Amino acid sequence: MKNKSLERRFRRVLEEYGWLKNSRVLLGVSGGSDSMALLHLYCSVLPADQIVVAHLDHGLRRTAARDRDFVISVCGALGIRSVVERRDVAQLMRRGESIEAAGRRLRYDFYEQTRSALDCDLVALGHTRTDLAESVLMNLARGSGLRGLVGIPPQRGAYIRPLLSFYREELREYLTENGFSWVEDETNDLDLYQRNRVRNDVLPSLRSTVNPRIDEHLAALAEEALAWRQEIEVRCRCLYEETALRHCEWPSFDLHRLRRLRAFERTELLRFVGRELGLEALPRKRTEELSRLTSASGRWVFQWGSEVDLMAQDGVLRWSPAVEKKCAFLEAEIGQTIRWGGWNIAITLGTANDGGCEKLTLSLAPDEKIVFVQCKNGVSTSDSLFPEIRQGGQVVARRENSQWTIFTHRVKYEKVCQIVFTPLRGNWRKNEWN
Predict the structure, then answer these.
(1) How many Cβ atoms are within 10 Å of 7's Cβ, its own excluded?
(2) Would you list the domain boundaries of the chain?
(3) What is the SS3 assignment for 390?
(4) Which residues, at least 6 apart from 286, have a Cβ–Cβ distance to it below 8 Å?
């Protein structure tokens, strides 16, 4: 085995971040050089029974079967369990969604389902330092703020990226020196997607005409931005404690205290609350508009997307769910999570033995399955504001007399379905914000 130094570096990364655990880790493996390096490096530090490989065929390339068979073959030789699935991205795209965005959504859905089913603590992805430099440049070109300069964070929840300190070329050298192979995605050479254009045209031009070490500098900038972002998060939590009002269901501020903050602090605090509520980030102009409004006297309402209103009245700025007051029904497909005011709502596949469900027994035809309503964190779904839930234009759940009437659907599944309500921010209806 050659290039032991790379393996030692990899182990140090895992130890530094606390990612070496006595539990399974799920690896996202496409068959390309980055993900194959991830697989072999993990094999150098963990036994095979602690590694699971997940491979998703996006249904976009004729050579996808070759990649699938390659990953299965390598995993078999290494004694590692592999989970392979095919999802037709082109068919499953949502309205207004790009191929790239749809592929990413379906890929992460697949990872999450596999992680949960196989009880894996972490999901390791093969993003490299080269990918990090590309992402920073792309975010800059899109008009990102300081937060976007982080590019690809080392960890987001259960998802980790142990290769962010390794360049793609050194990983390929490691694979070649040790006789490990990989498959090439032929579409990487085509300028079909923005990242390909940055990788194939923009960065090579910058290396040759501006600075040959541009990748290194962009990646270093991302690390500085990450340290800045972590400090800002700590500062925003302190600011929240200093300015927020107590005993409120949703975040509420004393406007007089809020106005005493510097404009930068006020803007970051407002963004912080939006992130804590799981809301879409506001564009820069909308954020500036909201910051200016906080200095305005009188009553005003600011719409944060279609989900949340910010209302200033009697010296208090309050967040409150907007959609909950207006929406009569929601349309959702099985496997899809949708936002509704203070909730994430999903129609998911479940089992008849799932705990925490409000189960209603119905008389069913042979091809029908029961739909359960489940509300996480102990919050009751008897709230009169909850809308109907629809799937494919047909009602599957409706409130009647402060309880849920569960209808059936005629799609044949081996498992039942359940509707899951999850508060955006813990038990916010139980004053967790205080």
Answers:
(1) 18
(2) 4-216, 244-321, 328-430
(3) strand
(4) none
d(CA 369, CA 314): 51
CB contact at 8 A, 39 and 137: no
Gap between the Cα atoms of 412 and 370, Å rounded: 11
CB 124 within 8 A of CB 36: no
Q: Does domain 244-321 have CATH number 3.30.1490?
A: no
Token digits of residue 213: 């070490």
Mean pLDDT by 10 residues, the chain (434 residues): 82 94 90 95 95 91 88 96 90 82 89 91 95 92 86 92 95 95 78 82 93 94 93 93 83 91 91 84 87 87 82 89 58 66 64 40 35 48 56 60 51 51 52 44
Query: Tokens 């129609």, residue?
Result: 347
Instruction: Quote the CATH superfamily of domain 4-216.
Output: HUPs (3.40.50.620)
Evaluated on CA atoms 37, 42, 45, 48, the torsion sign reads negative
Determine the 3-state secondary structure of 424 from DSSP: coil
